[in-house]
Predict the 3D structure of the following.
Amino acid sequence: MNPEDPRAVRTRQRVLEATVSLLAERGVEAMTMDAVASTAGVSRSTLYRHWPERLPLLIDAVEHLGIQLRDTSPETADSEGELEAELQRVIGQLGAGLRSPRWGAIAGSLAVASEHDETLAEVYRAYVHNRRQEVISVLRRAQRDGELADSIDLEWAVSLLAGPIYYHRLVLHQPLDEQQVTEHVEHTVALLRAEGGR
């Protein structure tokens, strides 16, 4: 099978879309290979030629959705200072993802399923780690450029930026609009700068 063949590309896209829909509508536990094949309208043999196991398909589907969310995220206007502008971009993408009906539902389902499946937990931890590293890179540049104090614990700072957004959406199940995320980032940047000034 040539993965670059247009028919293979179309099949993979159809399967990834079907997988994302299943994950959003019914959760991780309902995402079986049989269910994906049925939803995508492909045979099981075709599905297994592209993905021999469920877990790689799940990983690819999450990445597929992540690319879609990044591509559709609005450009953030420059704010006061490079640090805040960059954080508005990356945390704004997080907020946009959690606002979307698909990723909002999938994120919660993945977190719960990871509690009972160590292999899935490893994948989920790697996914979260990669997203955290993007924010840490922004904060580290700000420390290098003198916008933040070197004494600030960057892991704590990431949790301070991302944690309330996850809590608001996935624990409280409250709507999360763009303005709330923007204001949260503004207040958190002010707090981080004040923390460094002590």
